[in-house]
Design a protein that fits this description.
187 residues, mainly alpha, 83% helix, 0% strand
Amino acid sequence: MIYRLYASLATLRSALVWTLLAAMLFISLIQIMRALPPSAPSVVALQLAFTPSRMEAVLNAWGASGRQAYLLSLAPDFFYPLAYACALGAWIALLSAIPGRAPSFWVLFLFMLPFMAAAMDYVENFLHLWMLALTDSLSPSLIFLASLAAAIKWGLAGISLLSLPPLFLRWWIIGRVSARKQQNAGV
């Protein structure tokens, strides 16, 4: 299943389409979050609150309109993790694919990191939705779990993003070497 997903995303078209979708969703999230007061803490501060007192401080600084904006942002944020996971996964697959060779365990592991990040994003979103809209109760354990999921998400997404420049360099070198071999074989 992972290999089939890897193979299906390892195209420039997939990478561009998913990147465009992720960018559009990200822009929509930014537009919704513009309702936060200018000096208020960021969404990341809420995501990484870890304690009820820090989460309450963020929510109080946001006020009712900021809290409502955050809850509204959860609608597109339920599509955004899939889009960014597929975008990052597509770029990782495209840049790591070697024609005629199956991807190694480590390449597939790297490929799966954005999808694991998206899974953590869904856990975080669900827990925030549960606490802020469904129960209106800030449970210390749920806040900690949501923050832990967010921290893991950010770490995995960061590793995925940081893997792209070396993968691009590897892809470029392989392309150059291949082109020279073909050029030398033709001479």
